[in-house]
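Sequence design from tokenized structure. All designs in this work follow the same two-part layout: the structure record, then the generated sequence. An example of the structure record is given first.
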């Protein structure tokens, strides 16, 4: 499973990238608004993220348009910002139509706000390079987000969508709306291709009290050797 960072915060991205395990970044309008950035600076901000993570790390930038022509226009503009930009498009009729057009033009799309297996199947057939099913938002309404996303991972895994995606690249499922390290464990067990994780969760993923205790005791014993 690969790890993406679910943030638009440049310092978080710089820090996480320095750990050596980062494979991409996902942003959304809420995450960008949280940085305090303006509409005018949005595209420069996405370019800064792309520069930090380098050309091999996909960076999802979301269109907020509601009709297919406008989404396609946004998508072309966003994709031109850097070679690693992936256009994020909501799973809806206009989004599917725009995804087909963008995919046919060789532009990679991450279909987001995906909650069901039928939505995921349609996104895959429309040429999405990534599909982002959400976990935490199901938990928020007292449904089991892990179970729902596991269904999507299993259903997508039943088929080969390479013929639908840009350049025949393999479609990947990004488990999104992750709220805890336990969510990450369950994503790895269900076989999600990617987990996009907020920085706070990524910091918790590194830690275990037995690791801390082990480091402390090794340090103490090493003092005796010295
Ligand atoms: C990422 O692609 C999603 O936009 C993000 O994970 C949503 O997370 P949230 O449900 O915690 O807002």
């Amino acid at each position: 499973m690969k790890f993406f960072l679910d943030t638009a915060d440049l310092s978080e991205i710089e820090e996480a990238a320095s750990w050596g395990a980062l494979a991409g970044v996902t942003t959304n309008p809420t995450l960008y608004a949280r940085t305090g950035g303006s509409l005018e600076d949005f595209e420069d901000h996405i370019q800064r993220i792309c520069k930090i993570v380098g050309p091999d790390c996909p960076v999802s930038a979301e269109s907020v348009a509601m009709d297919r022509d406008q989404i396609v226009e946004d998508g072309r503009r966003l994709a031109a910002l850097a070679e690693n930009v992936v256009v994020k498009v909501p799973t809806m009729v206009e989004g599917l139509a725009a995804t087909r057009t963008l995919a046919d033009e060789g532009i990679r799309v991450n279909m987001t706000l995906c909650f069901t297996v039928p939505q995921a199947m349609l996104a895959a057939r429309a040429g999405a390079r990534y599909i982002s099913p959400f976990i935490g938002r199901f938990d928020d309404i007292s449904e089991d987000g892990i179970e729902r996303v596991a269904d999507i991972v299993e259903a997508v895994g039943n088929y080969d969508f390479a013929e639908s995606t840009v350049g025949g690249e393999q479609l990947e499922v990004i488990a999104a709306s992750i709220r805890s390290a336990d969510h990450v464990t369950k994503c790895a067990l269900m076989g999600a291709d990617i987990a996009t994780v907020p920085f706070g969760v990524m910091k918790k993923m590194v830690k275990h009290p037995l690791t801390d205790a082990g480091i402390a005791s090794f340090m103490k014993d090493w003092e005796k050797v010295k």
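The chain has a mean pLDDT of 97. We note this feature because it recurs in several other targets discussed in the main text.
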